[in-house]
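Sequence, please.
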């Protein structure tokens, strides 16, 4: 049975994602320049596809780096306790940084990253997220570039997984309830 049978509906289409990323890139192209090339930090795993499409729309020089964060929370609402699985390869001291996320949900992951980065003395830190779920927020975090504000639904695709599956789905979809019933989304 195809994994596409697990999807109830499309929430954000490929075309909507493409157009919105072009707009976000325009906003960034107004802010950054070759004079002070930023580092785009992709938060793995979910943001890999967003980074790949975003970086190709940017007209200024920039670097990319990667960080992977894991939440200790098991099956319940994000505990706010996180650990670094993969750290940056480069120093961000004195650099302009753009954190690239796929989704900001409770805000705990981003809050941790922002606090952690602050100790590394970057020149600036901004946040780009493809998806934002403000209704789930438990901690206030600044987000500079938002692709789409979405309702509290069980989304997957375009980098976002459920049980490590569906990341390759080229749009943001909503899973059928029978696929995730009994499992908390955190
Ligand atoms: C997701 C997402 C964010 C975080 C947001 O990552 O990529 O990093 O959760 O949730 P929060 O705002 O409630 O902290 P996840 O832990 O699912 O890892 P993954 O990207 O590797 O799938």
């Amino acid at each position: 049975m195809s994994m596409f049978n697990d999807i109830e509906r499309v929430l954000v289409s490929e075309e909507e994602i493409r157009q919105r990323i072009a707009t976000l890139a325009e906003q960034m192209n107004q802010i950054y320049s070759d004079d002070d090339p930023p580092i785009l930090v992709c938060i793995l795993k979910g943001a890999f596809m967003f980074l790949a499409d975003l970086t190709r729309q940017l007209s200024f020089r920039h670097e990319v780096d990667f960080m992977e964060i894991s939440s200790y929370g098991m099956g319940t609402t994000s505990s706010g306790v996180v650990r670094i699985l993969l750290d940056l390869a480069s120093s961000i001291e004195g650099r302009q940084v753009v954190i690239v996320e796929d989704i900001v949900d409770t805000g705990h992951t981003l809050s941790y990253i922002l606090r952690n980065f602050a100790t590394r003395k970057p020149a600036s830190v901004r946040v780009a997220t493809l998806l934002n779920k403000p209704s789930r927020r438990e901690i206030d975090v600044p987000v500079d570039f938002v692709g789409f504000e979405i309702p509290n639904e069980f989304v997957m695709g375009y980098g976002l997984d459920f049980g490590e599956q569906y990341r390759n789905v080229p749009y943001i979809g909503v899973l059928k309830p029978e696929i995730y019933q009994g499992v908390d989304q955190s």
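The pocket of PRP is lined by residues 43-46, 69, 71, 78, 101-110, 161 (CB under 6 Å).
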